[in-house]
């Protein structure tokens, strides 16, 4: 499975683990990394034996941003023609729950990649930021939109306009990350959370991802309507019958992910 240049991929039970692996560039996200992550994550997403995906980096850096050296000399017309960053949409859209396990730097595109995941777990060493303003540009992989929705306008403007870094504690307080854990237990915690999610009915977790994500993109009335339709629709799955029968029979559900 490790046919990728810039990432490592492994499976642990129902969890797929993708590790960004460009240590010399602090996991800066170049085009190759984008293609590798999207391809690997898409394959895991389609596999019914996989119920959750963990995306992580190194101790020092989750990812220090898009690759500045690759971008630096491009023209606006290059960027438009290549639709630079557009392929990341393919990662963000995947419905298998994605957990970003962040230690060290998650800057620029690194922070934005973490925000494309459904849950962010942070090591106490994590540092989040959108430093693009210091490079004479703005975030381009979703930062102006996803960060604002995650932490609110005040904090998002502060971070995006100053380019400053936010530590793990501030990130948790702001609602960007769901938990902060000691750096040496980050991966174990991420694998534990992912295994727990992976043990649930995959159709149910995927629909949960889709419906919660819809809360970002729609009105309350439309979102509630969507939720109700999805909730009703899940009664067509074997897992709903199994989950509710198991409760009544006082046993653990054995989901078939159908
Ligand atoms: N792109 C390309 N290379 C990068 C990189 C990036 N984003 N971040 C780090 N690197 C490279 C460095 O150039 C350096 O390479 P060399 O050894 O060949 O010089 C190597 O990784 C190690 O980095 P440093 O020596 O700088 O490490 P440090 O510990 O002194 O500093 C850091 C760490 C503060 C994270 C610093 O590397 C840094 O500021 N990186 C850039 C952060 C940034 O601006 N990110 C935003 C990128 S733009 C973007 O992401 C656009 C978008 O919206 C998608």
UniProtKB/TrEMBL annotation:
Record GO biological process = fatty acid beta-oxidation
Enzyme Commission number(s) from the entry: 4.2.1.17
Kindly state which keywords UniProt assigns to this record, in alphabetical order: Fatty acid metabolism, Lipid metabolism, Lyase
Is Membrane given among the entry's keywords?
no
Gene Ontology MF terms in the entry: enoyl-CoA hydratase activity
**CDD domains linked to this entry:** crotonase-like
Top-level division of the source organism's lineage: Bacteria
Any single Pfam family the record assigns to this protein: ECH_1
Catalysed reaction equations from the record: a (3S)-3-hydroxyacyl-CoA = a (2E)-enoyl-CoA + H2O; a 4-saturated-(3S)-3-hydroxyacyl-CoA = a (3E)-enoyl-CoA + H2O
Q: Which InterPro entries match?
A: ClpP/crotonase-like_dom_sf (IPR029045), Enoyl-CoA_hyd/isom_CS (IPR018376), Enoyl-CoA_hydra/iso (IPR001753), Enoyl-CoA_hydra_C (IPR014748)
> What sort of enzyme, by top EC class, is this?
lyase
Q: Which family does it belong to?
A: Belongs to the enoyl-CoA hydratase/isomerase family.
Record function comment: Could possibly oxidize fatty acids using specific components.
| Name used for this protein in its record | Probable enoyl-CoA hydratase echA8
Source species of the chain: Kocuria varians (Micrococcus varians)
Lineage, opening ranks: Bacteria, Bacillati, Actinomycetota, Actinomycetes, Micrococcales
Encoding gene per record = echA8_2
